[in-house]
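idk why but the lab printer keeps eating my pages so im just putting this in chat instead. protein + zinc ion:
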Amino acid sequence: MQIVKTKGHLIYSANQGSPTHACLGSCQKVWWPDDIPSDIAVLAKPVCPQCGGVLTCDIPPGYYSVISDDAGVLQKGGAMIKNVGLNLGK
Ligand SMILES: [Zn+2]
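predcted complex ->
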């Protein structure tokens, strides 16, 4: 479990490693490979699972910061929470 901060969001993710995609749309979250549907059509032109905005694999420097990369495991109702965005406003 890691906690990553982007503009307006705290993201709790069960994914390991650095995010691979950044949303350039309205939510501006970052995403990991597991978050992106592995459909060929989607991979060719990925869109944000949350807001439908354009995703870029070329994450701009400073787009996010890692708050913690070892935050333990967050569980809710027995299911692991994956990439839950906390909206902090803009
Ligand atoms: Zn988005």
